Write the structure tokens for this entry.
Amino acid sequence: TTGRYAQEFESGLAAYVGTKYAMLTNSGSSANLLALTALTLAVTARLWRTGCGSTRDADA
């Protein structure tokens, strides 16, 4: 959930790394979606990702 503590952490993290914004996500998948959404890519752009869909695949 978002709230005062999350907002404070985001602000502190942004200041620490020297950027204007920082955003927390609830998962790596959400972080990847957020990062890709922030990019300006052509419709025909190709993206690569790892074949491991989750940690349980790597643990098997």
